[in-house]
């Protein structure tokens, strides 16, 4: 369950990095967070760096080019509804999206710092760009995070450069997030001086500041919960800022406390359930109601077992000493309407 501690003031955070083990819904949560932030009147840039065009699929738009595109508006503002910081809500903001690939980022870098416009594109035709971004993973991460850093930097300059109130990064999975963000240390063995190293050091001033928060997405299963704990420990060890934990895909409580305790203790009997079905006017023969009762009792036992396992993992998450939020499993799957629904949950819990 969400923690009872006072909600942090995320309004001061400019860069929200969202990570999580594969299959936990990391990209979905990043998209929902961008919509939730836009609902407070912020203009938000949602970035992805893994080359999967996940943003385009979630928002049902054409594949994104290497440029910032408007993809959605924030939730309608609630009249008089306060934000987490207590300020009144204004008009909804806009969500923009950016698909970042290392090759395009390197061309951008060469044009920006070395003024290699046409020459850079010539290198790309000869395969030099692909070679450079493949041979040195540390350089690749600098290029990817560098584009995010430029988008989050106040006072951006250049043709068509927008100012964003917040940037949400759909980041690599938990197992790689520390390496991905800790670009200065990753480059230590590759470049001790020069513009790439200087850029990495400058980026670390943002990544290690209170203007950045790294949020973890998990589900209530043993492996993702343990990987989240390991990821939080890694970030703290490298002095990178831990944000919150979003527990995704939670199931509703199908049984109240008394019924759950009765099923768990094995005190429920199919005959009693069959009698209740008959009293409720459920059609069918006595044998059919008995079979249905057995099926319901089996489902109840499965639910109780699953609930016990999830509660055990939830208690572990509560020990992380970080703000915790929960998002439900949506029965119809996640489409654009589902993203808005999840965004509303995050907003109500104070994450935006």
From TrEMBL:
InterPro entries assigned: ArsA/GET3_ATPase-like, ATPase_ArsA/GET3, P-loop_NTPase
Pfam families: ArsA_ATPase (PF02374)
Record Gene3D superfamilies: P-loop containing nucleotide triphosphate hydrolases
Ranges where the ArsA/GET3 Anion-transporting ATPase-like domain occurs: 17-205
Official protein name in the record: ArsA-related P-loop ATPase
Annotated source species: Nocardioides imazamoxiresistens
